[in-house]
Amino acid sequence: VVLIKTEDLCKTYSTGTEQFHAAKKIDLEVYKGDFTVIMGSSGSGKSTLLYLLSGLDTVSSGKVFFKGQRIDAYSEKEITDFRSNKIGYVYQSINLIPDFTLLENVAFPGYVAGRSKNDVNKQALKLLKAMGIGEQADRLPSQVSGGQQQRAAIARALINSPEVIFADEPTGALSQEQGTIILDLLTDMNLTGQSIVMVTHDIKAACRADRLILVKDGMIDGILELGKYAPEQ
Ligand code: ADP
Ligand code: ADP
């Protein structure tokens, strides 16, 4: 089942008189339930593509469909609702709010979506426990490790039960060991049905893909069908 589809997708950045084409006529499909990985060297346009697929940035031309609906044609309000309810986003830089506890950080998008505080708090704690950091729920981000912060950021991305999780180099700021924990969590989530689209230039992270999309110079350079990653027992 096609979850996301692009047609002739282009993104051009303008800085003064200079123009840079970061996405060039991209036609792509992302399937529901897949762990899709977008791989390419630095500057190839991976983050740009993720921003466009997730509605975090506007297209220069072309179309982006999410379950058949054109998100590039959404109004400001529709795109805000879409970002808040349909997708979760995980960043390399983690981006937790420093003076919120982990629990408050995870719960926050639930409050923004207008859900009951009690429900949201319960679910936030459940998610933190599932990420193995239930004990740290009342700590501030500065009081836990980078890997634990990223686990909280994944919990935050999951709070509104999104249809898809986007992750931009989620292991990029972490040690090898912490990075593997994050990849294992994402793999587990995917094996229980969560659709994931992850950007990386790390081959170890790319190995988790069902479907590996290679990006080069703002274009698709190849697509590899790998099948489900088999976790070690
Ligand atoms: P990647 O994620 O593969 O490293 P990006 O999508 O971040 O690549 O960037 C692709 C190209 O677009 C790079 O050359 C980058 O410098 C340029 N770029 C990205 N964002 C902007 C921007 N806001 N303004 C101008 N150029 C940008
Ligand atoms: P990453 O490689 O993790 O995607 P980057 O360092 O490429 O991160 O980009 C981080 C931010 O800076 C992005 O929001 C991107 O749009 C912006 N950016 C990247 N390159 C440029 C550029 N040449 N000019 C302006 N903004 C840029």
From TrEMBL:
PANTHER family named among the record's database cross-references: ALPHA-D-RIBOSE 1-METHYLPHOSPHONATE 5-TRIPHOSPHATE SYNTHASE SUBUNIT PHNL, LIPOPROTEIN-RELEASING SYSTEM ATP-BINDING PROTEIN LOLD
Lineage, broadest ranks: Bacteria, Bacillati, Bacillota, Bacilli, Bacillales
Domain of life (superkingdom): Bacteria
InterPro entries: AAA+_ATPase, ABC_transporter-like_ATP-bd, ABC_transporter-like_CS, MacB-like_ATP-bd, P-loop_NTPase
Protein name stated in the entry: ABC transporter ATP-binding protein
Record has Nucleotide-binding as a keyword: yes
Gene3D superfamilies attached to this UniProt entry: P-loop containing nucleotide triphosphate hydrolases (3.40.50.300)
Entries under Pfam families matching the protein: ABC_tran
Keyword Zinc included in the entry's annotation: no
Gene Ontology CC annotations of this record: membrane protein complex
ABC transporter domain: residues covered: 4-233
GO molecular function: ATP binding; ATP hydrolysis activity; transmembrane transporter activity
Family classification: Belongs to the ABC transporter superfamily.
CDD domains cross-referenced by the UniProt entry: ABC_MJ0796_LolCDE_FtsE
